[in-house]
Design goal:
Helices cover 28% and strands 26% of the residues. By secondary structure, it is an alpha+beta fold. It has a six-stranded mixed beta sheet with strand order 3-4-2-1-14-13. 44% of the residues are buried.
Length: 254
């Protein structure tokens, strides 16, 4: 089974950019999407030409903003939105699919914003989201994926020094949030297989950043340790797939 994750920066936009070919290249049994920027019915409509997948979506109350989706070749036991806290559930940022032996969670973590105006909210989000996935993990293993909006270590960002504690996605408080996920027993699958590989999943649209590979690794698959060690056989970043300012990431499960 291959599970892929991709922040598409607008599902209707990416459909016009060879999405069908990208989906064929990925050959994913499950594809998790972030930043669909569409209401649930609009996501379904946008994906009408994509055959062979069940489509599940969680959209924000604010139109054209945020939103996540899960496309699956085989139907999950159930799919449910959000984390159960009204203060966090208006923006359509989490969708969970339950399978026989694990939960799959896709997340679009809030960006701390220009001048870090949303960093205090981001801190509360990080704690609440971790509580949520730990609750799921008490029932069965968890695999979570998506745009976590943080470069975890220096190796995960092309220019660490000028961005540290100045840019959203590379402040110590955001790094601490990812540290807490790892400390809770979740494994960064890409680093598990590629401890020293420099590879990014997001590039600014400005100044030709992607062509110069001035990027950030902010898209992850993180899994319960036993699940990763027993079932995850590969983790990849698909730099050659375009269509968004992010590229897809994936894991292969036995």
């Amino acid at each position: 089974m291959r599970i892929a994750s991709w922040n598409v920066n607008g599902i209707r936009a990416v459909m016009k950019k060879d999405f069908a070919q990208s989906l064929h290249t990925l050959d994913a049994d499950i594809l998790c999407l972030q930043e669909t920027k569409a209401q649930d019915d609009q996501v379904v409509t946008a994906l009408e030409g994509v055959e062979g997948y069940h489509v599940h979506s969680n959209s924000a109350e604010r139109k054209g903003y945020s939103g996540v989706a899960i496309l699956t070749r085989r139907a999950p036991i159930r799919v449910f939105p959000d984390i159960g806290l009204p203060e966090h559930d208006a923006e359509g940022r989490v969708l969970t699919a339950e399978f026989a032996d694990f939960y799959l969670v896709t997340v679009y973590t809030p960006n701390s914003g220009n001048e870090l105006v949303r960093l205090p909210y981001r801190e509360t989000w990080d704690r609440a989201f971790l509580d949520f996935v730990q609750g799921l993990q008490r029932e069965k293993p968890v695999l979570m994926c998506g745009d976590f909006n943080v470069a975890h270590r220096d190796i995960d960002i092309a220019r660490p020094k000028p961005n540290y504690n100045k840019s959203a996605g590379y402040t110590q408080k955001e790094i601490d949030g990812m540290d807490s996920i790892v400390a809770a027993g979740f494994v960064d699958t890409f680093r598990h297989f590629h401890p020293d590989t420099v590879k990014y999943s997001w590039w600014s649209y400005r100044a030709g950043a992607r062509a110069k590979n001035v990027g950030w690794r902010i898209d992850y698959f993180l899994g319960s340790r036993a699940l990763v060690e027993e079932r995850v056989k590969a983790a990849e970043i698909w730099n050659d797939i375009h269509g968004s300012d992010h590229c897809p990431v994936s894991v292969d499960l036995a």
